[in-house]
Amino acid sequence: QVQLVESGGGLVQVGGSLRLSCSASASPDIMGWYRQIPGKQRELVATNTSGGITNYADSVKGRFTISRDNAKNTVYLQMNSLKPDDAAIYYCYAHFRAGSQNYWGKGTLVTVSS
C-alpha cells in the first residue's frame, strides 16, 4: 500500500499564494493534484509524470505550477493569484502504470477569503 502525505493547505486571502506538498512512499509514474468542493465532483488540477510532462486544468493555467522531485517522490503545487473558486479540498494523486494502480492522499483544505 502506497502512502501519500500532503501538507501546505490553509487560509489565504484572494490574490495570495500557497504551496502544497505531497510525498509518496514509492515512486509513482504520475503524481498530481485534484480538488473537490463538497457536493461536487473531484476535478483535475494538475499532473506531472516522472519524465516531467505536466498537464493543467484550464482554470489554473498561468497561476499554478506543478513540480516534482523524483529523488524524494514528492510533488509540489505552487498556487498563485488565488481566487475564491480555488477554495476546495486538494487531494494528492499517484498513479503506477504497473498494475494500473491509483492512490489518493487524505486531502488538505485550501480556503480563500475575500
Major pleated sheet:
7 strands, mixed
What is the general shape? globular
- By secondary-structure content and strand pairing, the structural class works out as mainly beta
Mean pLDDT: 97
Treating each run of at least 4 consecutive H or I residues as one helix, how many helices? 0
The parts where pLDDT drops under 50 for at least 5 residues are: none
Strand content: over 45%
Rounded to an integer in angstroms, the radius of gyration calculated over CA atoms is: 13 Å
Instruction: Please estimate the helix content.
Output: under 10%
**First-residue to last-residue Cα separation:** 40 Å
Number of strands: 11
Name the helix and strand elements from N-terminus to C-terminus, one letter apiece: EEEEEEEEEEE
Structure write-up:
Helix content is 0%, strand content 55%. The chain is mainly beta. The strands form 2 sheets. Strands 2, 4, 5, 6, 9, 10 and 11 form a 7-stranded mixed sheet that branches. It has a 4-stranded antiparallel sheet with strand order 1-3-8-7, with no helix packed on it.
